[in-house]
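Issue 218. Parser rejects a valid record. Input:
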Amino acid sequence: MFHPKKIRSWRTGALALVSAFLLAVVAVAADSAPLTGTVNVNTASIQELQLLPGVGEARASALVTLRKQRGGFESLDEIKDVKGIGDAGLDRMRPYVRLDGKTTAKRP
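Output the parser choked on:
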């Protein structure tokens, strides 16, 4: 026979697991929504950088920090100097990043 406290504990754990799963699904869906336009990595805000595939708040902040340290990016390959951005990550971003011009990126 199940003890009422154990059942409550199991329900709480199950609810937490389902909630975490749903949050992960929403995050992946938001990241995979089609992006239109481009992001100027030399002028974009942290929020604008987060529009890029695979870039969350931590990577966007790291990009801004590196950009300030270097006085801007001269090559898109310099983006790979941010922890967690490698060749594959840059390849996913490449269609949406630029070094000059206006940031025009939007997610519908």
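Fixed in the parser; the record now loads. The first helix runs from residue 4 to 32.
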